[in-house]
TrEMBL record:
Residues 60-254 form the Rab-GAP TBC domain. The keyword Lipid metabolism does not apply. The keyword Membrane applies. It comes from Dermatophagoides pteronyssinus. GO terms for biological process: endoplasmic reticulum to Golgi vesicle-mediated transport. PANTHER family: RE60063P, TBC1 DOMAIN FAMILY MEMBER 20/GTPASE. GO terms for molecular function: GTPase activator activity. The chain crosses the membrane at residues 220-237, 249-268, 358-379. This is TBC1 domain family member 20-like.
Amino acid sequence: MIDNKKDVIMVNGEPVMAKTNKNHDDDILFTEFKANQIKKYLQQNDRLALKTLACSNGGFVTNKLRVKVWCRLAYVDNDDDDDNDDISDDQNDIPDNIQRNDNYRQVILDVERSLKRFPPSVEEVQRIAYQDKLTEIIIRILDHNPDMYYYQGYHDVCLTFLLVMNEHQAFRLINAISRSHLRFYMERTMNTTSNLLEIIYLIIRDEDDELHDHLIRSEVGTIFSLSWVITWFSHVLNDLDDILRLFDLFISTHYLMPIYMTVAILMWKKSDILLVDCDMASMHKFLTAIPIENSSLPIDRLVRDTLELSVRYPPEDTLERQKQIETNALNDDDDHHHRNDHGQSIIKFSIQFLRRNIFSFTFIGFISIMIHQFCYDYLYS
C-alpha cells in the first residue's frame, strides 16, 4: 500500500521507506536497506512481498538481485552458477533448425537494427555475440511454442533480459514471460492487442475529459502507443536503468500495467499535449517523441501514478468494461449490417422481379402506347 504523503511502502506489516532525494548517502543507505529486504523475502520465498517492493522507488535496485527476483516471480529456476552458454539441453539442434524457421529473416533484420540498445561500454565483438545469442533465443522460443507468433519489437524485450543474465536464464525467463504477460501480443493477428490499447482512452475518459476530448478530436488513435506497450518501453527509452526499473514493475504486476503506464505518461504530459495542434499528424509526432526527447523521465513518480490508476481502475474490471464496449460495438455493427442487408435484399428482389417480368412490362407498355395512339387518331381524325 502506498502512502503518497509519507512515501512509505508497507510489506507484511513492516514499513519500507521509499528513496528520498536528500543526499547521496541517503540513497546508498536506502539501496542497502532495500537490498537486504529483497534478500530476506527471497529467502522466505515471499512472492507477494517481493512484488510489493517492485512498486517502491528503485525497484529491485541491482541487476544481480532483479535477476533472482524475476526468475522467482516467473516460477523459473535460477542457477547462479550456471555459466553454460547452452540455452537448452538439445541446443545442438539449434544451428540446423534456426534458419529454417519462418521468422528467421525478420528476426535477423530486427536484431541487426538493435545497435542503439547496447550500452556504449559493449565492444563490437561482444555486441555481435549478444546478437547471435539473441537470435537463437528468439527462434528457440518460437520453435518451443508453435501457438505463438513473432512480432516486431519482441526482440527488444528479449534483449533487455539478455543484457542482465546469461542466455540459459534468459531463455527460460523469456519463455515464461511470453506465455504470461506477452501472450496476447503473440497471437496470429493484432486484433486483441488493438482492443487492449483502446483501454487507454477508456481510462483517460474517466480521468480527464479535457485531455480525452483533445486526443479524440485529433484522431491520433492508439498507434503511437503500440511500440510503448508491446516492448515494455524498451524500444523507446534510451536509459537501460529506466527500462529495467519498468521491467521490475511489469513482471511483478498485471499484464495491463504497460497500458496504465501509457496513461500515466499522457496525464503527466497533459499541459504540453493540449498545446499541440489538434490534428493527427502533429499529435502523433509529439506523442511518439515523448519517451525519446524526455531523457530523464520521472520513472518512480510515473510508477506511483501507474499503480494509483490500477487501484482506481482494477485491471480485471477494466477488461470487463472494454469487453462490454466491444460487444456493444459488434451488436451495433450487426444491426447496421442487418438494416443494410434488408435494404439490399429489397433492391435485389426488385431487380429480380423486373428481370423476370420485363417482357410483360414491355408488352403492357407497347399495348398502352398503341391504345393511346388509337384513341388520339380516333378523336382527332
